[in-house]
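User: Can you help me understand a structure? I only have the sequence.
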Amino acid sequence: MTYSKIIGLGSYAPMQIIENNALSKIVETNNEWITTRTGIKQRRISSGEKTSQMALKAAWSAIQDSGIDKNEIDMIIFATITPDYFTPSTASILQAELGLKDIPSFDISAGCTGFIYALQVADQFIKSEQCKTILLIGAEALSKVTDWTDRNTCVLFGDGAGAAILQSSEKKGVICTYTGSQGDLKGDLTLPAVSLKNPFLENQENNNNHSHIFMNGKEIFKFATRIMIKSIFKVLSDSNLSMEEIDYIIPHQANIRIIDYVSQKLKVKREKFIVNLDRFGNTSAASVPLAMDEAYKKNIFSPEDKILMVAFGGGLTWGAVLVNWTI
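Assistant: Let's start by predicting it. Here is the structure, written out as tokens:
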């Protein structure tokens, strides 16, 4: 039987570092307020780099790390909610920049769970033997959709990109995947698209093109803590593994209080959780691969470690992936 495994990782974050104190100059907040409520001390903000440009740097890093020739890539799956364009897809732009031809390339929009969704889709393409080597990207330029006058959200987000190369294998690398979604009819976490505007509308003044992230923090906290625990138990059950057999958990880097809550409820030591949101903030679909690559580059993981990735996001979406570490 054909399985899939991770053979290479890469990441990129803009050079511009924005400390909490810098935000206090543009909105009513301070370092203590941000740190105690979120765990975030700084974030990376683009100085002009687009989502595709950050992704390109992460992609090259992953390709070099994997040791493959770029032409071995036969699919690109790109998770983002901040594409360069509605069309062409950011995956198609990346494909052209990499100099790859005649391979399927497409975007996935699943909020902060995007990379988990992309990994699940890629795993299925490889298991069905339609592809052998897939480039996965999670990248965001959230600074362009952040309301910098809203202190409840502008302190949270950062820009960045993460990439992984998934390849077919006789050995099981990806052990189990799980995703889910529930339509956010209440609008607890939204990012509006272009408003409906045409010469046949009666109330043109009610439409605008201000596209900023909105989040009901209290409701999302309750959702996140519940659904992350559910997702973790789901992949453990499907894999016939216990929590004690998991070496590390890579959670979506949204808020340290969420991670602490999940850790306490699961009775899992915080040392098992890979956390870097204090330096990068919430980078949405880039969050999990960026944290995974950083831990990998620090030699935290060992071959055969059981690594569990878990995330939640706008949609509302959620998911988890359990992998046997193979690099």
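Now, to help you interpret it: The chain has one domain: 1-327. The chain has a mean pLDDT of 96. Let me know which part you'd like to focus on.
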